[in-house]
Amino acid sequence: MTDFSQTATVTQTTTVTQPYIRYDPEYVRSIPGIIKIVCIVLNLIGFICIEVSYFSHLSRGSFFNTVAMLGFWFSGIMLVFYLFHVCEKFHKIPWLKIEMYFCAAWTLLYMLASSLAAAANVEAFQAAAFFGYCAMVAYGYDAFLKYKAVSAGEIAQGSRTVQQQQQQQTISTVTTY
């Protein structure tokens, strides 16, 4: 008598999304929505602090303003995409990975830009550096949340469920001579 055992694992992934664009004000009450709004406000305040300074033409001020404005526009556009469920409509685009990489890069860029601004002996630059460091923390926390979501296999909007089933089959054969 010979026994033969075979185990198979079946993984089934179900993604549920609504394919139409709609306005959803609930997003601004969620943690990712609040973080995006905080980032937008901090970017704008830091930009204004540098711009009202007489020394805004210095290279460190221009660098800070570039970081602030790119962060402002990216975060603002992503906020609009989430508010109108554009990310859910185009759920095949890896929105969470894009945001994770952007937020990680902006954490580092804000650390550099804020350090350069803080080193200047100008009060407006030092105020901008404070808001830049706050933005650095916000972008870092957002990058951490996005990393956890990407690691868990989540999508930006909608829902995805993963089910695993294991099947074991044992076949016995009897040999007669």
TrEMBL record:
<keyword id="KW-1133">Transmembrane helix</keyword>
<dbReference type="InterPro" id="IPR008253">
    <property type="entry name" value="Marvel"/>
</dbReference>
<feature type="transmembrane region" description="Helical">
    <location>
        <begin position="34"/>
        <end position="55"/>
    </location>
</feature>
<feature type="transmembrane region" description="Helical">
    <location>
        <begin position="67"/>
        <end position="86"/>
    </location>
</feature>
<keyword id="KW-0812">Transmembrane</keyword>
<keyword id="KW-0472">Membrane</keyword>
<dbReference type="Pfam" id="PF01284">
    <property type="entry name" value="MARVEL"/>
</dbReference>
<dbReference type="InterPro" id="IPR050578">
    <property type="entry name" value="MARVEL-CKLF_proteins"/>
</dbReference>
<protein>
    <recommendedName>
        <fullName>MARVEL domain-containing protein</fullName>
    </recommendedName>
</protein>
<feature type="transmembrane region" description="Helical">
    <location>
        <begin position="124"/>
        <end position="141"/>
    </location>
</feature>
<feature type="domain" description="MARVEL">
    <location>
        <begin position="27"/>
        <end position="151"/>
    </location>
</feature>
<feature type="transmembrane region" description="Helical">
    <location>
        <begin position="98"/>
        <end position="118"/>
    </location>
</feature>
